[in-house]
Write a structure and sequence with these properties.
- The chain is mostly helical.
- The protein has one domain.
- It is 75% helix and 0% strand.
- The C terminus is likely disordered.
Length: 80
């Protein structure tokens, strides 16, 4: 997992959008990976299915939040 240092940037800073988009793509990839492991089953992965489901749910929930931020940022940038 990457840890980003918080940058002090003004509201509507256009450099935020690419970071949100990159985070969204990483979340989509992580979600697909966890879903694939979940489909393989415990016999193959030796990972509890409920733990994998928690990861899938987290990725999807966070992806929705990031997507909402991207949409609102695009609207803000378009207005400027």
């Amino acid at each position: 997992m990457r840890v980003y240092k918080r940058k002090d940037r003004p509201a509507n800073d256009p450099t935020k959008l690419p970071e949100y988009q990159e985070a969204a793509e990483q979340l989509r990839q992580a979600s697909r990976t966890f879903e694939h492991l979940l489909k393989l089953g415990k016999e193959v992965t030796r990972i509890e299915p409920r733990k994998l489901q928690v990861h899938v749910d987290f990725c999807n929930k966070t992806l929705k939040e990031v997507s909402a931020c991207c949409l609102s940022d695009r609207a803000c940038f378009a207005a400027n």
